[in-house]
């Protein structure tokens, strides 16, 4: 069966694309970074999807692959290129030589080179020897992008390694080396694969100067182990928590057909690519179009320690290297509960061979409390229903940190994009007994530096059609007067967005962003149909505007961006943020086009931040910090779309009196019975 | 067994208190509004709790009841009084004559008087006759407090009735009469129990004037039924949603002993009183004190339609009448899922007789997604745990609206106070074909008026002890300079609150409220132990400052209030907001005391708002709108307190391929197996 235009490339297709490119560069060696589906241009895909939904004959869509690779000239020269190839015809459709100002995304092999180069570097060995590590400790090198200040003047390609000591006496490869930060950062030139220098890190506290390399020997002696794997916990896992099981004895309510998912009036496709992770396409509810595409566009994590070389710590966790290799296999853990469907992805592995990345996306239903309720107090008749959600989730690990992303669809026509930050905070060595204004000592000798996580979610609306208008709606007080004699009136103001621009959150004005179809009115209210969300006032990028960190992450400085659709314009910080000097081809450039965006193919980008000043409770692994964007229908439907959800009593719920048999002072003698909800 | 000082009064104790008061007023008739526990003064209760926690002999605490009642002089005079009586000694301890400027809280009998008075009123019958209701329709009167502009100049006590038509031809007492709003409001003098006037309501739209009483006959002809009870749904309940069951085969992890609840290091008491609903007391984690008391203090729902008499619509859903009679019996519906423990309350019913209000509070565990996760990418070893929460929940129905309140305790030491607004929006009649800037037409002929819901949660911290300091912490950018050469530094500023005051949210500065113990330092970080929350920037009261609505709800104008503890100072809008002219004895008065609050018995009040401009999807019953306050430990613990939560695979979770048997394009052949989490 032919793949759907939005299906990711199979292993076979990926290798076919690779072979096409190799054939075009037969005189050179080629190293493939990534190969994945080049999503069809919207003008074409719209036609296809419209035909698909209306049962018309389907137009043919070229099946194209985006190939990102290095061409090696054999004399040490490396050129970054991209080719779009047509898998069926075997021809190249587009050929891009990546301009030299840009750095192609990082790859796992380059991380391995760094680790090997460090292992072979005398420069590094000497630096370690100065440290006098305790017996039994070996060095762990954690490769990082070399970001924050951009590349150097010659635009060399570097990687840096954050270093830790691992206590091998624990005889466990998962003992937590982050508890033993080493004050060294080796820097590798990616072209020569050589360690060109080893930065000595300051380890002082509040009383020490900015340049202070206290950097004494015995830097780990005051550090303390902090394990999280259960077999290394001092007292083992707790035994008090009783099981809580979620089951669906009649199976799930969703159906899956390839990438097509249907559930309770929702119909959409899930995709996966190694740049963005899970993507959502062609979202319909009761046969009406809602969203063309949803995705996590980018995130940046700038660190706020001013001491050299820490300003170089600024990851772009999607753009630096794509998240393909960072995506968790969700079967290996306990990431989902209940009845679960997994989806695989395809990513380039080593040696120009693609492989299946199994279980990178999971799908399941979950209960999220009361959906709606009303009791007629006269008759005491209560009707209450549960809010069931359908969750599409993926999780990425970037070195120390984890991010859980979920698209949640609910019974009332709402879509929530949820982010959870967890994992291990980034720590650097600090002298014994010292504290620092640049972070918090979360473990003896380990300073967790202050930083921010700023995310951008891309929303491509298609509310009852592909041409929408973004309207900013606010509620404002009104002075007392003839129109407001009692002073209780407030007025709702609506301002359509005419030109591409950024907009900040303003919850004090109840500023709501509506994605409106100007040509479709709700038959009940007479107002235009729309979907809306309230951008949350969160703190955005704090770095100074002229700083490298701010220049590279201009997207991170405003809460909402409104742009006119352009094919392949998906990445808030641009296509090549790795070691960038400035954000290029991202949102700041997009709005400068000053496009007319009213009643057009408009795209909305939602940005939110988490300023993270670590607390001791974040150690050794932080409890998940949650943020949500709630997309909700606003006059899209003619009533609550979940009004017909059954309100049966759930036969599996039971009463309890708690573990002891006492009554409440005013309490009932609870008996085992049935209560709860469907 | 003697009751705990925080246990609510039993039926017997309530009647005993009543009899004591009756004995003191033997020459008069007394009508009791409410009788409930007068919580012990904090100076006494602290001693008791400290002794309890340390296993010392318990001091004796008087068992006192707060009785609120009317004394009728037999000549039509009614005086509102309160007495605190000692149940054991039988003596009155305090006697308060409620000042005449205040109105005692409303009671259900008064609501019945209104309904009866309307039924007997010729004035009202004539007004209805003008309307020419369709055949088969009867009038439903929904009693409301008479608020918004305060009482009249003589400070008469009034109630108003919102009127609707019920279609009796449906032969169902729960057919939705809100779909048929009648443009009449009868007003009853509560003393004489007579209908003194019938307000005719404007029914015009945007083109009509403020005073427009279009008010034509046949006002219901263009209205359309909108039922929510399943037997009246046009197509019945849907059958596609499959069951999702939550079970705990080994029972719950919590234990209950009277009002005492213990769960995963948490230990606290749950109380219930008819003013505030469920309250939380004496919260400890791993034997350390966290909170003295948590409660929902007040909420106000002001309506923003400027046309007379709509400015009178402003409910104080806790303070107007207490929520005792409004509290849902949670067994009658499907409000909780899983293994559930219910608690009863005691409230005054008719004829000065108390009764048990069964199942007004429920307790259960629930899963809330991933708690924490880390994967060592080198070994692929993933450790992931689930975030389990313990939920204490109660639900109130105020005429058309429902509010669900939940206190949620999690495994990482966090406490969340969650509010869900659901139920039926308040609608008024609007002429056919018209729309209005004052709201949204959600059903033909039914205009849902714009309004706000503003809530106040009272937090009485006891972080490692009863004397705490509130510290405001913010993160600010720093100019480029010698201390910030790369421009990436931001600084964290902490300002202790010295005097009682209000503070607004400022998420742009990452303004965080910390409740700190100045005398206890975290041994790892050296910083003071604390609990914190980030006040969310939400829109607060929009009514003009000089308006009745704003004067009465001054608490609703700022996000955070910090006051010095005073016994019985529990109610943000004061003790008597019903028909008040101005907020008295609420938060605005409390901060005017200008008390010294640093390192003292300080109380924090969190205020948040939901500006509700109704959408058609809110009809006929609105999907729940959710808000949360997240209290989180900050350097209170020496590590993540949930690090030892087991990460076992959950044996009840299963794989599925979805309802169809196809593979994903890149999909795996899911087989029935086991995956998921504990």
From TrEMBL, chains A, B:
Enzyme class, UniProt record, top EC level: oxidoreductase
Location of the Copper amine oxidase N2-terminal domain: 4-91
Matches recorded under Pfam families: Cu_amine_oxid, Cu_amine_oxidN2
Modified residues (2',4',5'-topaquinone): 401
Region (Disordered): 659-678
UniProt KW Glycosyltransferase keyword: no
Polar residues biased stretches: 659-672
Note accompanying the cofactor annotation: Contains 1 topaquinone per subunit.
GO biological process, one term: amine metabolic process
EC number: 1.4.3.-
Domain Copper amine oxidase catalytic residue range list: 244-643
GO terms for MF: copper ion binding; primary methylamine oxidase activity; quinone binding
Posttranslational modification: Topaquinone (TPQ) is generated by copper-dependent autoxidation of a specific tyrosyl residue.
Family: Belongs to the copper/topaquinone oxidase family.
Name assigned to this protein: Amine oxidase
Organism encoding this protein: Cyphellophora attinorum
């Amino acid at each position: 069966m032919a793949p759907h235009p939005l299906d990711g490339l199979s292993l076979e297709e990926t290798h076919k694309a690779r072979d096409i490119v190799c054939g075009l560069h037969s005189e050179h060696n080629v190293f493939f970074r990534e190969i994945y589906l080049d999503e069809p241009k919207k003008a074409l895909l719209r036609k296809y999807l419209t035909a698909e939904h209306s049962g018309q004959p389907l137009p043919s869509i070229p099946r194209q692959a985006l190939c990102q690779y290095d061409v090696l000239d054999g004399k040490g020269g490396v050129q970054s290129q991209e080719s779009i190839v047509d898998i069926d015809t075997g021809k190249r459709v587009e050929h891009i030589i990546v301009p030299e100002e840009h750095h192609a995304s990082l790859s796992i092999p380059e991380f391995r080179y760094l680790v090997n180069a460090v292992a072979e570097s005398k420069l590094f060995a000497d630096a370690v020897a100065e440290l006098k590590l305790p017996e039994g400790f070996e060095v762990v090198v954690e490769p990082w992008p070399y970001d924050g200040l951009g590349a150097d003047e010659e635009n060399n390609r570097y990687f840096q390694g954050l270093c830790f000591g691992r206590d091998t006496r624990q005889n466990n490869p998962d003992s937590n080396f982050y508890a033993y930060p080493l004050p060294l950062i080796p820097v590798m030139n990616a072209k020569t694969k050589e360690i060109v220098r080893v930065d000595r890190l300051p380890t002082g506290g509040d009383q020490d100067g900015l340049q202070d390399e206290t950097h004494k020997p015995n830097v780990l002696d005051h550090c303390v182990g902090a394990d999280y794997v259960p077999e290394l916990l001092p007292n083992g896992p707790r035994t008090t928590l009783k099981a809580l099981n979620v089951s669906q004895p009649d199976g799930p309510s969703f159906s899956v057909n390839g990438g097509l998912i249907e559930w309770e009036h929702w119909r959409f496709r899930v995709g996966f690519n190694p740049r963005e992770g899970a993507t959502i396409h062609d979202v319909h509810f009761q046969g009406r179009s809602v969203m063309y595409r949803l995705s996590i566009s980018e995130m940046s994590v700038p660190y706020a320690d001013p001491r050299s070389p820490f300003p170089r710590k600024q990851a772009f966790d999607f753009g630096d290297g794509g998240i393909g290799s960072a995506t968790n296999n969700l079967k290996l853990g306990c990431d989902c509960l209940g009845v679960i469907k997994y989806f695989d992805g395809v990513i380039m592995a080593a040696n120009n061979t693609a492989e299946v990345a199994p279980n990178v996306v999971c799908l399941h239903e979950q209960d999220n409390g009361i959906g709606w309720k009303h009791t007629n107090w006269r008759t005491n008749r209560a009707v209450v229903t549960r809010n069931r959600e359908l969750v599409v989730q993926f999780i990425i690990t970037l070195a120390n940190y984890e991010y859980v992303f979920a698209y949640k669809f609910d019974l009332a026509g709402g879509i929530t994009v949820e982010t959870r930050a967890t994992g291990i905070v980034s720590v650097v060595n600090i002298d014994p007994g010292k504290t620092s204004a640049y972070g918090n000592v979360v473990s003896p000798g380990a300073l967790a530096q202050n930083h921010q996580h700023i995310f951008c979610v891309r929303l491509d609306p298609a509310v009852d059609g592909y041409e929408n208008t973004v309207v900013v709606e606010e509620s404002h007080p009104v002075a007392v007067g003839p129109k407001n004699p009692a002073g209780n009136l407030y007025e709702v103001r609506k301002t359509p967005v005419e030109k591409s621009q950024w907009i900040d959150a303003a919850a004090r004005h109840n500023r709501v962003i509506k994605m409106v179809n100007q040509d479709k009115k709700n038959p009940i209210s007479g107002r235009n149909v729309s979907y809306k969300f309230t951008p949350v006032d969160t703190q955005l990028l704090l770095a100074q505007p002229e700083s490298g960190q701010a220049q590279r992450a201009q997207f991170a400085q405003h809460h909402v961006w409104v742009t006119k659709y352009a094919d392949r314009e998906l990445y808030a910080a641009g296509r090549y943020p790795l070691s960038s000097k400035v954000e290029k081809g991202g949102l700041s450039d997009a709005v400068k086009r000053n496009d007319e965006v009213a009643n057009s193919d408009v795209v909305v980008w939602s940005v939110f931040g988490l300023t993270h000043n670590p607390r001791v409770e974040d150690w050794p692994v932080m409890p998940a910090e949650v943020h949500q964007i709630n997309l909700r229908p606003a006059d899209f439907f003619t009533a609550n779309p979940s009004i017909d959800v059954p309100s049966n009593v759930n036969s599996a719920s039971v009463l309890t009196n708690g573990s002891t048999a006492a009554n409440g002072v005013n309490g009932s003698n609870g008996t085992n019975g049935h209560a709860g909800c469907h």
